[in-house]
Write the structure tokens for this entry.
Amino acid sequence: MITEDALAKLHQMRRTRLRLVFTLTAAMLFVYLGFITLIAFDKPLLGTILVPGLSLGILLGAAVILLAWLSTFIYVQWMNKHHDPLLEAQTQEIPTQSQEIAAETLEVPNLAQETPDMAQETPNEIHSR
């Protein structure tokens, strides 16, 4: 069974992960919606040419995409460095029913020994069963 202490640690880990997820999501939404708002209400600003062949709109659009990649990278690095080791340590401490069920399912009976050889039976014998 899961102890109260282990359950409290798992809830704390979940809260920390959700805080990171919501922070990254909010940052991404803020940047994306800000970019879309600029597209909708200030097209001339985004059409400003910075260097030949590169406008402010193209630069900001690429920045939005790079920020999405960066937020994914931050999330994956944080999960690998902080969350996953803690979760692994917690799961080592908690014996679960699924582990017991998995151990039971590994004991598969040999059905070939228990069933008659159906290839040797005639159609009448199969029908009479």
Observations:
- The radius of gyration is 29 Å.
- The chain has six helices and two strands.
- The longest strand covers residues 49-51.
- The chain has one domain: 4-96.
